[in-house]
Design goal:
It is found in: Cell membrane. The chain is an all-alpha fold and 185 residues long. It has one domain. The chain has six helices and no strands. α1 runs parallel beside α5 and α3 runs antiparallel to α4. The longest helix has 32 residues. The termini are far apart.
């Protein structure tokens, strides 16, 4: 009985963490979705985010056995810096007009965005790696929640972008910039 209670407690803890980490993908997905995005691109981006939400905590858990807590803070700063750069670039492109040099739907854009929203999963993985945590449950929960929350955020951003018109990219960039600064500070 005590063992079953411990497993349920661990499951609830991991699920809450997965949802919290998925909220980043949701919030930032709103910003990207505001640029205007097709359903096919939403599926591609969300799939890559889900894969990164599996890979990053997995790598973090293995690293957590060997690294100190300092690495988690460095990863958070790196994720914040990446999001600040992406946000500034989106804002710049929205006012510049013309041909865009960076597209979140491009393979490089998808990878950079997915890495940015999954960096905190690595940090959490490092922390979980220092404890005995169910590896399969953790990475599958993180991947599912990250993918699902990014789909929801991208769809919501897409819907909002229809009402904002050309300013959608600037608003989306401001959202990415704000979250990047929150990661750093």
């Amino acid at each position: 009985m005590q063992e079953a209670t411990a497993h349920i407690g661990q499951f609830v803890t991991i699920l809450v963490m997965a949802l919290a980490l998925g909220m980043d993908a949701f919030s930032l997905g709103i910003g990207v979705g505001m640029k205007g995005i097709r359903l096919r691109d939403i599926l591609k981006i969300s799939t890559v985010i889900a894969l990164f939400h599996i890979l990053m905590p997995l790598l973090g858990m293995f690293t957590g056995h060997y690294m100190s807590a300092l690495l988690g803070q460095v990863a958070t700063y790196a994720a914040g810096g990446l999001l600040v750069l992406l946000g500034l670039h989106m804002i710049y492109n929205s006012f510049r007009g013309g041909e865009q040099t960076f597209d979140h739907r491009s393979p490089v854009g998808i990878l950079l965005f997915s890495l940015g929203v999954s960096m905190d999963s690595f940090s959490v993985g490092v922390s979980l790696g220092m404890f005995q945590s169910d590896l399969v449950l953790t990475i599958l929960s993180f991947g599912f929640c990250g993918g699902l929350m990014s789909i929801l955020g991208l769809l919501l951003g897409r819907r909002v972008s229809r009402n904002l018109g050309d300013y959608g990219e600037a608003v989306g960039g401001a959202i990415l910039l704000a979250f990047g600064l929150l990661f750093i500070f």
